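Re-running ArsR/SmtB family transcription factor to confirm reproducibility after the cluster update. Everything else is unchanged from the original entry.
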Amino acid sequence: MAGRAAKAALFDGLASVAKALGNGRRAEIVDVLTQGERSVEQIATEIEQTVANTSQHLQHLLRAGLVRPRRDGNRVHYALADAKVGELWASVRDVAAAQVADVERLAAEYLGDRSQLTTVSRAELTRRLGDGDVIVIDVRPRAEYEAGHIPGAVSMPLDNLAQHFGELPTDTVVVAYCRGPFCVYADDAVRALRRAGRRSARLEDGFPEWVRAGLPVNRGAGG
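Result of re-run:
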């Protein structure tokens, strides 16, 4: 019995990580934090929850060892505990997308019709960046761009993208990227660019996948 009880306790402990992710808002927080560190207030805004509710979710993730806090004066910032947490979330997301029938329908309802959107693979984008025949725009919020971005990418957050159309060459394909395969920012950017008569495409997935593929990353305000 002692062995059985010890084994049960061990597996309960291992399962605590999955239990912490067994809530949509907590999964959403992990997804946000794959882009970089955020304050509690920023996370609350991203997931459209109160600061109090967001703090409770963060405490669950903290107890499971999935995030780590950093205090800056009166403000607390959170980041993923390490890169493996991001890999875990990507695996959970990908298995759900492949195996859970409802996920495809839910994704279509959220993302809309993607059938007319051109996508570019990471390998193709890497080649075209080397050839210099493409403009890459990062349409995530500026803070995420500064935390890490594709070398050569220009920060053009979706909220004010239209203001920058005049800065983009009319004879070059524009490739937009954002947070990952279930992020709508790049989709909306491509649609807006097409309405403006620009040739455009979106990266096949997003910045976290670029990082996990071991591709180069720049940090800070510069391209």
